[in-house]
Amino acid sequence: MTGKGQGGSWVPGVVSATDRGNFHASPTTATVLDIIGRILRAPLSATDTEIETALAQVADACSADVAQVCRAGTTGPLEPIHSWVRDGHIVLNIQDLCKFCPGSDQTGPVMLRDLQDLPEGPARDRLAGMELRSLVAVPMLRHGVLAGRVLLGWRTGSSDLRPEDLAALQSLAEAMHAAAERRESERLTTEAAAALQEDRLLLESILRTSTSAILAFDADARIVFANDEAAALLGTDANRLPGCTLEGVGCRLLSREGEPLPPEALPVARAIAEGQTLRDLHHVLMAADGRQRILSINAAPVAAGAATAVRVVATIDDVTGQVSADSALRTALAEAHQLAFFDPLTGLYNRRGIVEVLRDCLQTCAREKAFLSLLYIDLDGMRQVNGTRGHWLGDRVLQALGARLDNLRQDGGDLGRISADEFVLTCGETHPDAAGAVAAAEAEAQRILESLREPFVVDGLTLEVTASIGLAAISAEDSVEGLLKGVDLAVMAAKAAGGDRACAYRADMEQDMVGRVALAQELREAIRRDEFRIYFEPMVSLGETGLEIVGQEALIRWEHPQRGLLAPIAFIPFAEETGFIRDIDRWVLRAAAQELARWAEDPARRHLGVSINISSAQFLSEEFGQMVREVLDETGVDPTRIELEVTEGTLLSNLGLARTTMMDLRSLGISIALDDFGTGFSSLSYLRDLPVDVLKIDRSFLGGLSDSKANRTILEGIIGLASGLGVALVAEGVETPAQFAWLRAKGCRTFQGYLFGRPADEAQTQLAPEVSALGGHGGDRAVLGQIKG
What we know:
Elements (H helix, E strand, L loop, with lengths): L13 E3 L12 H13 L5 H15 L4 E7 L5 E8 L24 E3 L9 H8 L4 E9 L2 E10 L8 H47 L3 E5 L5 E4 L1 H7 L17 E3 L12 H8 L3 E9 L5 E10 L10 E7 L7 H16 L9 H18 L2 E10 L1 H8 L1 H18 L5 E6 L2 E10 L2 H19 L3 E3 L2 E3 L2 E9 L5 H17 L4 E4 L6 H18 L3 E12 L2 E15 L3 E3 L5 H7 L2 H19 L9 E5 L2 H4 L4 H12 L6 E6 H6 L1 H13 L3 E7 L6 H6 L4 E4 L2 H4 L5 H17 L2 E4 L5 H9 L4 E3 L16 H4 L7 H5 L5
Parallel strand pairs: 18-19, 21-23, 23-24, 24-25, 25-26, 26-27
Antiparallel strand pairs: 1-4, 2-3, 2-6, 4-5, 5-6, 7-8, 7-12, 9-10, 10-11, 11-12, 13-15, 13-18, 14-15, 16-17, 20-21, 20-28, 21-22
């Protein structure tokens, strides 16, 4: 009996534990239970002693002459960890006894009744050299997987050992394994706690002795930690800081130009939103004690879901002293503010200033539950003025136009020049509904158009200027980008109608938007009307008996009532953009699980697993794990036959959340496959840190296999990487015998592609004869000749 790569083998003379008949003496059930109780109750320091005592007691009760406890090693073969020999006996090479154990594919108790049952050869000679005649191997199992064995050996066979005795001995073996695991777990926990304590002490020392102010904030920008330097900088008592925001202790952060920062521009909010460390941000602090200081701030986000409530850690240095004098600082701040927010030609707001104005408008709409008006004014013919009269004159016209528009501006409104000949005007009067805001904007636009029809006199020249105006209502639900895009579309419509007119933004100005809305509605109806279908593409494995279908990848199709059967490319990208992919993912997961449950009743399909693609939006959502549990409960399928496929981009977009999700799914028995491997980041570090079970080679590498040395080199590297990491490998997109033969020669054993079968609405169970024949060795050399290298 031997594991993989070990000498010797079990032969037909070996019998399983279910065979009846006398073999050896055995301990009583009461004795075994007593021994198990002592092992499980033993303190950490006495675990090894109790295991050795139990091994001796059981071996003696069974009249065995030698006994050994072995565990599964990291490289495959079993390793002896405890051995016992009856007093007065000498057994040579007892450490080699474990080499006679059966491999990891045999998980039941096994007996060798008599040495003579082994055929002549090295295994028999080694056992005879130990002067042993019979053996029993009892497995240690963990979640159904072989973790080790307990071996008993006799010089002569004379006593009774019944199958029920073997069951009791297996319970004892698993108790030994559980005790050993508990000891190792407690040791690792103790070491980790000690290391954590050391890290905490070191961190506390660093924080307390730092010359920089250090603040830690939670997700709501409340202070969680502040060192003494931070309290001094903020001008308040350190005891007031925990649980408060900066504003709560009387402090305010301003821009370098002295303007109040909107909430989303504060360093804490930016660090959380951008998910990366922000360095050397310069802001002005109005401290609680009235001082004004210039700060240099570094803010680093902390991953959500950590044990602490801290979401951002900031280090702050006072750099006020770097400014030569307060007056110079005030001048610099004023000049910087003017340059940052105002147009130097007209003195009006520039694009950045208008963006801030629109943000204020959105806050006003939200606060007052009202609507404001927005006008986008694009001059007609300014390119001709610049081309015929020169840019100098064109600038004078823009200055005159800006002054005229500013005179027309109502109280509370703001005006800005956001590009060469484009102006934006907001109206300060609020309205209870969008229709009222649009009507007010239309009235204002007509007033502007009439005013602009009066000629401009510049340096003795009389110039006529018209404009096209786009307008829209501003509501709390809008965004700055959306507003500017909407009125820009309206300006385009006004120009298309001939110019010198105003046009209100309408949804039908963007046909693509209409089409997207229609598609969204169709997708929603598709789920309600059950128009989606699952197609299955076979996955095959090359074993000792040849090629065999071992699983199916679930692929979605849409049976559109007008357009017929649609492939995923026709609707999945749109669903991912709009968030509709979550509903589709949920449907596919449930439909595939229901099909898997039906296969369990079919002898031809019950061995098949199913692989399901999951979008990043679904995989990284907080409710995904619960949704999977609900599907498993609803369908009753075996989760070990489910494989979920995700892309590299999904994992790397949020490594912390991805790892948490993967560990949760693996605890259910579900495996994780990394789809399209090699086309994205392919960083070795994340493969080391994430519990990936399967790598799926992207089909793009196989297309140029015959004439691309680079593709062959990459594939060889991926195959070697998977082997080194102990990760399963699947080659996708295999379409020719030559591709299959090359992959097979390089060590790949699982495949998927049109060579083996195209997607179909029923799971394929048999390969075509000519494809099945590829699983043999004949013809490989000839086929491989089609591929260089």
